Amino acid sequence: MKDHYEAIVIGTGFGGAVAACRLAQAGIKVGVFERGRRYPPAAFPRGLKDALGGWVWQVGRGLFDIRILSEMTAIAAAGYGGGSLVYANVQMRPPREVFASGWPPGYSLEELADYYDLVAYMLEVKPISAAPGPPPKTVLMKQAAARCGRAQQFFYPNLAINFGPAGENRFGAHQESCNFCGECIIGCPNAAKNTLDLNYLKVAEDRGADINTDCEVIRIEPLDSGGYTVTVRDHEHDMETASAARYVFLCAGSINSTQLLLRCRDHYKSLPKLNAMLGHRYSGNGDFLSFAFDTASAFEPGNGPTITSAVVYDRHNQQPAWFVLEEGGFPKELAALVQLLHPRAGLLEEADRIGLLKQAHEALTHRAAVAPGAVGERGFGDADRTAVFLEMGRDRANGVIRLNAPASDIFIDWDVASNLPLYDTETELSADFAKSLGGHLALNPLWKTLRVPVSVHNLGGCPMGAVEGEGVVDPFGEVFEYPGLYVLDGSILPAATGANPSHTIAAVAERNVEAAIRKIRNEAKWRAPEMDAALQHRAHEPLFDVVVPAGGTALPSTPPVVLSFTETLNGFVSFGAAAVDYAAAAREGRKAGTSASMTLTITTPTLDSFLIDKRHAASAKGTVKVAGLTPAEGAAVRNGVFNLFVAGREGDFYRRRMLYHLPFRGADGADYVLDGFKDIRDHGGFDVWSATTTLYTSVRAAGGGVVARGIIRIGLADFVKQLTTFRISGTRSLWVKTSGMVRFFRLFLGTLFDVFIRPAMPGAV
Q1: The CATH number of domain 4-545 is 3.90.1150.10
Q2: What is the rounded CA–CA span in Å between residue 507 and residue 523?
Q3: pLDDT tens, position by position, 163-179
């Protein structure tokens, strides 16, 4: 590491690798800082004795950076080569319509075409059809697409994999041929994957770029003389140091680049002119993960590259308009772990709130240690008969990444409700394919239990804009008010791509670093040395061979039938209640006049999944009012979760709870959560009315302690009104609506029978 460079590149993912390569080729003295380590083929973590050690950045600076950020779980990579080390190799141009909304002038499929071809040349992309023979899962997906009436929307996407013979690639790096080991997403052990360290970064190093791994940039500060100083945490030597450069290219990924700039603006105050758009237009790229267990034929998810095929869903201007479903896979090293997600495996009972990393870690560590034997012995799944579906779509990109000022940690505000049409349709299409394969659909546990999406394609946070009020950076990635400071990664994309975004991130970086170099070197015609070769060998985009009917692709055959109802509760809470005595707190609140109320609309994800789910999870939206804490008109519930009749622990059959988890923002601007439960059990005297209408309520600061307790109730008049609000939507069939309502009330009344009547029957324990 040197004290001074002409340019500094932060991060080595698809933006940073492009920047480092081109700057070095232009003769610019460039220093590259990567927080992760180098991973030669034999150095990737393997084994699951400790489910986190060696794998997770937060535990020993491992390969995967997994962050549960309030309303979104974001997954990224940490290593020399960034996400290319563990992504599924797909290099896909998005549909033309992606650039029609939210992007600044200068961006269209046609205007980026040369840069897409350049990226394709550098990464030597080709589809699975270039391999000697497709694996079973590829064949099965093609057959399933035909059975679903989607044969014309099925295609093989381009992959950055060496399917040819072993030897040196065009950049002088040795690569083996892909042997279909299925380990793409945990690090290719054969260097058959065209990761960035074997092309872009190889060229950068050969051209003199100074590479510094285990070096995490924690602050950027302007110099009075021009340029910037970056403060670096050297993890290898456990020290902080600094380096300066006239130009800085921030390419740490959507989450990390945004977090770094937020800290520089709001915590360190070193970049105070960063505008209010910072953190906005976050997108999870519509990522959705699901599984089909017990498929009729062996899917063999560990045979072949992780992704080999895809199917397009396109309804033009409807919502959701466009997404792609890709078949996934997992290596044998993760097979036992995946089977723990099988509905009969019981993992969710052990990790009651799997969204909490500590509990999930403990459960996974324990179960992974015994999984290889337990999977076969307990008979809850066959890894070879497990399919994986990975979907990406054009979500609304309406998330906000924000800084928790005291700790400088970040949260993501993600509006699940407005993106539900996309998630629901992705679920329905997954169900179609699971059925076509003869399997049973299972959803990502975080989504199923907490309605928290998981994204491996985080975008936005530092969006481009034509003018400063529309973005953090200009259309070439230069930060407004800070000349010479650029952002060239997924954080500048102002909208979801819908497709796997790495190809677009790299193409945009190629476009923008070319413009930066022309400005730095005052060479109006500078371009990448490989551009001529790339344009002579333009890449074919398989997506563009897809045929979409004039009226759009078919709707999923699985209908989105949902149930909803509205309830109103009123009562009192007391601030500063030390003891867990809800009744006493309510009495004190009544005396003090600290009323509390809420009106909620509860909506099931789909009625079937709600009824089958043991936690009976549904979304809750509406208004919470707490005197002295919320505005007079109340505060909107933000991604609330409702659970109906959650069973007690084993041996406590005659007790259930209704759970309410209702995040909201107080009048003081701070975040709070109203957590409540209805204690559904016989307290004596057959008190079924009191049990089902009394909500024991706690209000706590987000991430902190309880600030108020009390009781709120459903009154008789409100209960009568509530009965008129039950609706089943998503179908015109009277039979479906009637049977759905019958099934719901069978669950409701059947549970009350089990709790209040069955204990008194002869022979009850």
Answers
A1: no
A2: 21
A3: 999 999 999 999 999 99
